[in-house]
Amino acid sequence: MKTANLAIVFTDIKGFTERTSRQTHEQNQRLLQTHNALLAPLFKAFGGRILKSIGDAFLVTFESPTQAVLSGIAIQDRLWHYNLSAEEDSRLHVRVAVNVGEVRVESSDVFGEPVNIAARVEGITEAGEVFFTEAVYLAMNKAEVPSQEVGTYELKGIPGKIRIFRVPKAPYRVEAPLLPAPPPVEPAVEGPPFGNIALSRVPETGPGQELAATAAALGQHAAALGGRAKSLGGQILEGASRSFSPLKARLNPEGKLQLPAGLTRRRLALGLGGLAVVLGVGVVAFRGSAAERAISDFESAAPSERNALEVKARKLIEQEKNAGVQSYLYGRLEEADGSWDGALRRYRTAIKAGEGDAEDRLIGLMEHPKCAVRTAAAEMAGELRLSSARSALKSLAASGGPDDKGGSGALGRLFNCDSRRAAKSALERLKDG
């Protein structure tokens, strides 16, 4: 019997059962697709392993309790961005509960009292909140995660009383560590509830990228809008064309956007996402090629579905005639499967072939929560003499990450990883080049 000390995360959608009784099957399916598209990448970005996705609920394990709580914070901020522009009946309000302890591990499940406690804590968690137990509070890095005691609870089927904590809403006064305190009177939240403190750590996530992700999620509901969605999408494309006039982006006679050198589809998506949220409309967002959609489906799929979806994605990638794009897509598939070495090799090949999206992705990986990934990305940027990576390398050289050598994370202490040093070395290579 294999056991491990893991952080357990449960999430579900508030009022989902009631919503299913008044929505069509297609509406429920679209809602769940949007829910999975928003949450699954964030679990994985913080090192989570999705064990189960049953209807509106996720069961996810993490090796780090700090990363587990950060994933919940990121989820709540991402949903805030999404709900800004979603129709009322499409908005998502999720609760997140976290516990940590020794569990029995099987291939696609975990068992034990820590799992039961996490499930019970979820039952008392309010929508939009991240609740966690005293065990998590004691084990996590308090300098990274703000905390506030909620109270002591008797949970059904659990012996004794459990102290429960929550992540307080932004803005924060930085204190290290943040100690439990009586709940303050919180002002009305005008921005993301947790100030993007965790979401900003996710690769390819910043103010513009986050809005683009929101627009992509809204695209799940475009079918229900019919011709109106296409009309709105056309208006936004025309507006985006004017917005990108300094970069000479224009619509060609067939209505497709012509992209100049250096302006990749992902960079364009940032502007479109921002414009969509500013206008407050749902649009048919750019979701990429069929291969990219297949990769996204594979990434968020349940374990039982992954093999078939991987085969489908590979077949679609093989049909891509541009060698650089093909290498980039294979890299995204490797990344979705957790094979970072394979992904980076593919990105190197794609960058050498002039594929701008691969270059963007490599730069984005310098903000990855795992030190080994940040280090490999920085080393490759130096090897390839990527001047476009200079800003990201400077940021990494200055701040590194929590699991760097000498940092607070266990990985840094165990493997002696130092992404700051890798970034400084890469910057030196850029100077020499």
Summarize the structure.
With 433 residues, the chain is α+β, with helices and mostly antiparallel strands.
Describe the structure.
By secondary structure, this protein is an alpha+beta fold. The protein contains 18 helices and ten strands. The chain has helices at residues 16-20, 25-45, 65-85, 113-124, 134-139, 207-218, 222-225, 227-243, 265-279, 290-300, 303-318, 323-336, 340-352, 356-364, 371-383, 390-399, 410-415, 419-432; strands at 2-13, 49-54, 57-62, 94-106, 109-111, 130-133, 148-154, 161-166, 250-251, 257-258. Strands 1, 2, 3, 4, 5, 6, 7 and 8 form an eight-stranded mixed β-sheet that branches. Strands 9-10 form a two-stranded antiparallel ribbon. β2 and β3 (57-62) form a beta hairpin. α6 (207-218) crosses α9, α8 crosses α9 (265-279) and α11 packs antiparallel against α12 (323-336). The protein is globular and about 65 Å long. Mean pLDDT is 78; it is low at 173-189, 205-212, 220-263, 265-287 and 407-415.
SSE topology:
Layout: E1 2-13, H1 16-20, H2 25-45, E2 49-54, E3 57-62, H3 65-85, E4 94-106, E5 109-111, H4 113-124, E6 130-133, H5 134-139, E7 148-154, E8 161-166, H6 207-218, H7 222-225, H8 227-243, E9 250-251, E10 257-258, H9 265-279, H10 290-300, H11 303-318, H12 323-336, H13 340-352, H14 356-364, H15 371-383, H16 390-399, H17 410-415, H18 419-432
Parallel strand pairs: 4-6
Antiparallel strand pairs: 1-3, 1-4, 2-3, 4-5, 6-8, 7-8, 9-10
Helix pairs in contact: 2-3, 2-6, 2-10, 3-6, 6-9, 8-9, 10-11, 10-12, 11-12, 12-13, 13-14, 13-15, 15-18, 16-18
